[in-house]
Structures are given as structure tokens and as C-alpha cells.
Amino acid sequence: MRPMAHLCDERIMNNDVTNDNRTTRQLWRLTRGQRWWFAGAAFAMIIANLCLFVPPVLGKYVIDMVSQQDTAAMSPLLIAVYGKAGLVELLIVAGSLSLLMTLIAGIFLFLRGRFTARASEAIAEQLRLNLYARLHATRASFFDSEKTGDLVQRCSSDVETVRAFLASNLVDISRSLLLLICVTPVLFWIDTTLALASLCLTPLLILGSYLFFSRVKVLFLKSDEAEGRMTACLQENLTGIRVVRAFNRQAFEIDKFAECNEDFRECEYHMVKILAYFWSLSDFISFSQIGIVLIGGAVRVQGGYISLGDLFAFITYVSMVIWPIRHLGKVLVDSGMSMVALNRINHILVQPDESSGQVPHIARASGALRIQHLSFSYGLQSVEKGLAEKGAAEQDPETLAENMLQDINLDIAAGETLAIAGAPGSGKTTLIALLLKLYEYQHGSIELDGYEINSLDKHWLRNQIAVVFQEPFLFSRSITNNLRVGRADASDDDMQAACQDAALHESIMRFSEHYNAVIGERGVSLSGGQRQRLAIARALMKDTPILILDDALSAVDSRTEKVILDALQSRAGTRTTLIVAHRLSTFRHADRIAVMDAGKVVQLGTHAQLSNQVGHYQRLCAIQNELESTMQADLDTTNSPLITA
Fold first, then answer.
1. Residue 94 and residue 58 in contact, taking contact as beta carbons nearer than 8 Å
2. Which of 413, 507, 537, 597 lies most in the core, judged by the most C-beta atoms within 10 Å?
3. What are the chain's domains?
């Protein structure tokens, strides 16, 4: 069996468990707008419990009346109402009144359940909406270190845990405390000695519930984290199922999932085992308490201190106290789980928003970009946070974080086409991420039409830019719906024009449903080149002053690439275009070329200028020219008469 310490990150566990006060405040804030429903549920619960107080009293007088064969033992109230009725009549009246009180209690218990269900479902709905909105609003860097499956777990299973607690246990806490406060004086009114005996084990039950409550939070956190890892493993494998099969890794991935599944099972088994201990011990204490009341009550009845009816009422009221207190243990268990779930939910809710900024007075930018002394590191912010926690502010965080971009300087005129070349990892995609304000740079400046990007409103900025990412993402919808992501009000003619520019229209028309064809999850029914061209068409539909193609032509053939580049060239001067590419054919269409290496711009100029300069670009040209010559020679050899014969 694997050690339990292996199943959870202790740092996260300790951080979550020590935030109970914050979690309680968060739980209180969650009930905002639904508190009247909970108040109504509490009121219904009080009325139901008051009604349930009546049958034991009636039972007491009925038993005394029957055992003593004297109607005078019946409640003076009933005698006053019904007069000197006979024994049978009084029994009928008492039984009918007990049924009536029980019926009323049942109605109010139904109302309590309905009110709490309405409130808890509304809270869960709002909580899921808040989480979804927060995931869309939080910084892009948050997703760099989070697993998708675990985030899904927090937004689904953890929300359900909180909903279940609010629906069934929040009011039960008040019920248990109310019964303990109200019933205890009644027990002492019936018989003080027997009351003391009946409550002797109650402190032990309460203490055990509290200790177990403290323990189960840690166990549930381990179980929840293990389930999150298992969900993340499942999500990752389903997403990459084709890669798994292509590399024949099914056995490995099944073993990996089995390991996560075993971790989750061990956590669940350990928690269930502790639950079994608690319920068995609490049942033993509760039944022992009832046994003490029976034995002590028999002695008190035998001694003539109380009547047989008093003993019946006493046992009933003791059960009304003991079992809710015992049930309080379950409530505490569920509250511990809900606190852990809320802490995991808060991990998302407390994430800071992307920084907001000013909205310029112009609706559409010209597209002029100016980058000055730009430096950026993905790890700098986390390093600064770690140094602050350790009190090591005297150290320079820049020396501890590797810069992805270093002193970038570029002036890009409105309408210019700039190609960006460079080896993988040279910082091309990082530069584009900063232009989109997905990350905030630490040093330097990026200006759009004279406005600092870091100070601009992110929505306004992104409305000025259309981008095709290196790995285009398509939704599991129709082609039309994917295209209208770029512009919701686009007409059919607009879509066809964009697809023709992206060399995609003919491919779409081969589908039986044409533009209404559903392309499957992530565009699985399309080829790699078709996915890229659909993403390009979507970007062209947006019709923005800035167009960014991040290696967006890598999956298309040279002929298709020429069609797309010619379409872009026909619109030259109307928008600023940044093209990250690796082919010389792409560079030749650009007004200028920026060559990046190790996070720096090492060369800048036209194709003619750079191809004649000693440097990275000249070497790239030589490699590609040699490759093209070799391919042409192979084609010539293949088509020679000798080979043909």
C-alpha cells in the first residue's frame, strides 16, 4: 500500500485547512440573495419541531390513563374541551390530535426541504456561473500551472459538495442545537436525576464529533485532490487518444490511470474506514445512552418517583436529543467536506483579473506598433513572490528568472507586413502573447497608436487584433458557427469571401452540408491544413487593423500558401500584418523581416538586404535553397526516361 503522505501536497493541504475563517465568511457571502429562503426553512423547522413536542406529552397522559384506568390522569386541557368523556373517547381524541400534529410537522418539514432545495440550487447555479466567469477573466499565467481536469473537478464535484451541504445540513445544525436547548429543560422538568443520567454521555458524543470533524477535513482534501488527479489523467488521455494509439501507448496510459485510480481508492477507503469507526462508536454511545435511560427509568418508576407515562415521554424526548446530536456528527463531516471544497473553489475565485485599462477615444486603431527595450520572463512574477515570502528582497529576481525576450526594439508602421523568423524557442510566440496582453511585460514598452498596451483595456485591444495561433483551436460546432466567432453578424457572402481568401471554400463545398457541416471536437473531421485555413478565414472575418499569423501556414502546401499570401497581398496596406513563418516564400511577401534568436532581434530588413548579410537569415536561405535543389533533383531523377522505362 502506498503511503498516504504521497497522495497529497502537504503545502497545499496545510494552506487550505488553516483558512476556516475565510471559508466561513465565503459561505456566508454565498447565501446572499437566498437568506430569506433559509430563514423560511428555519421557521418551518421550528414549527415542525414544536408540533413534534405534542405527541410525547399526549402519549404520557394516555399511558398513565390506561395504566391507572383513570381519565383524571388525562390532560386537563382535553377534559376541559371535551368534558367528562369516557376512556375510549379520550383515546380517540388523543390519537387524532397526535396524528394531526404529526401531519402538520410533516407539511412544515416538506416546506423546509423545498425552501433549502430552492436556495441551495440557486446558490450552486450562481457559484458555477461565477467560477466559469472567473476562469474567463483570470490571467493567462494561471492556466500555465493548472490541470484542466482538476479545474473541471473544482467546478463540478466541489460545487456539488457545497450544494449538498447547503441543501441538507445547514438547517440541520440549527435543528440539533434547538432541540438540545429546548428539550433539555423538559427532561429536567420530568425528573432531574434521570435527566442527569440521560445526558452523561452526550459530552463524549459531541467531543467525538468535533475531533472527527477535524480529522475528516484532511482526509477529504486528500480524496478530493486524488480525484482531481484522476479526472485530469482521464481528460488528458481522452483529448490525446489518437496520439496514444498512434504510439501504441494504451498499456502505459492504462497503468498510469490505474495508479491514479488506486490513489483515489486508497483515499476513499481510508475515509470510509474512519467513517465506519465514527458511526459505530456514535451508535454505541447513543444506544448506551438509551439503555441508561431505560434502566434508570425502570428504577425510578419502581420507586414511585415518576409514572410509566413520564418514562415514555422521557425516552421519546431523549431520543429527540440524542439522535440529532449523533446526526450532528454527519453534519460536521459534511461541513468539513464543504469547507475543503470551498477552499478549492476559492483557489479559482481569488485569482486576480487580467489588468484593466483605459479605452481610447478611437473605435479603430491604425495599427502602428512601437516596441522599445522590451524584456519579459514567464517566471519573474513567481520568483518575486517566492523571494517576498522568504524575506529575500535584497536579491535581484531578474538574475533568478530566465528572460524569454531581451531588449526588443521594433517600429512597425500602420499597414506594414512584418515577417518574424527564428528558431523554435527564440521568443516569437511570446512576443505575440504580449501584443495580445495575455501576459504583462516587466520592462520596456509596447505602444499601439501611441497608447501603452499595458494601460489599454484588454477588450478594446483584442478587438483591434485578429490572430491565428500556432495550434488553432476549433469548436465542436458547424463551420458557420466557427467562422462567426470572428464576427457574429457576418453574412453568408462575408464567410464565403473569407474562405476563398483562405483557400478553403472549395474544400467546404465538398461536404454534404457545406457550411453547416459539424467538424467535431477540435475540428477532428478536418485535415491539419483545413483546420489552419479555417482559423485563417475566421481571423480574416474579424476585419481588424492588425492581423497576426503565428506559423499559421505550416500545414498547407506551397500552392495553397501562395493563394493565401496573394490574397493577403491584395489587401496590403489596409492592415498591419505580423507573420511568424519558416518558409522563404512567406518572407518574400513581407515588407520587412525581423530575425529573432535567444529572445533578441538580431537582424531586421528586407529579404534582399538580409539574404546578402552574413547572419542567421542568410544561413536559413542557404539551407532552404539547398533543400529545394535536392528535392528538385529527386523529382528530375524520378521523371527521367530511364526510370520511367
1. yes
2. 537
3. 4-349 (1.20.1560.10)
